[in-house]
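Notebook entry, structure prediction.
Reason for the run: the old model in the group folder had no record of what sequence produced it. Starting over properly, with the input documented here first.
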Amino acid sequence: MSGQRSRISRSQSLTQQVARNVRNDIAAGVLRDGQPLPPTRELAEQWGVSVFTISEAMKLLADEGLIVSKPRAGRVVNAPEQAGRNEIRTRTPHVILIGGYAGSGKTELGRILARETGWPILDKDTLTRPVVEVALEILGRSPHDRDSETYLSIIRPREYEALMSAMTENVQCGTSAIVTAPFIRELRDKAWIDRTIASCEAMNAILSIVWVHCDADTMHTYVRHRGAARDSAKLENWDAYLGTIDLEFRPPVPHTLIDNSASGVPLQTQARWLLTSIVGTDAY
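New structure, fully documented this time:
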């Protein structure tokens, strides 16, 4: 992060970043209605920010009604709508393919969409990580390796093959699916995109491509907070990592752009806009 920022602007930015990520976790069901939040100091340690930043973020969320204070319980998540179950039925299966860089919020968007629709979420890491880690160890690599030629040429193609096979199996059963992964290489490859579109059309399914954008600072806050071992190399030299990605990248085909930056419209609101645009009159 730039050292040229004033302390005030940095504090405001971090407050928005923390508040947005907590808001996303509530919308995605990661934080549940009635769940007590850790004390302020513990949250500050988890997020790697000051106690002041956490207090200000909690004030924002309290003003929105997402956090309430209860005697002896402290701050508690207030999301009673989580108890309801939403379901969207469509005449034809829909596939929502969500890509984005690490920490952009693609999995959170997928979870929110799954809660809004009742459709299954197929997340690459959830489906493949345990097998990938064992395979890497067998091949003499770190289980957290995501940069070596061994991973990129041998393991990664099989990850995506398994993910897309799971999508195909759902669609063949007439079920819509939400598919989340970085899709960095895939969404740069027009031929891959065309094959995927053709595959969906052959199954009488409608494919919608979504790219999740996030500013570098918000992304860094989230990646640091989630503490995944696979992110350690990125966090050790964040500026060098940013030099390897293109935050202005957009897929070279029609797609929906979701802005998960701290200053953006709430992710849940954007998710609902997305569903309205892609489902429309196909819902019944």
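Summary: Residues 7-82 form a domain with the Arc Repressor Mutant, subunit A fold (CATH 1.10.10.10).
The old model has been moved to the deprecated folder.
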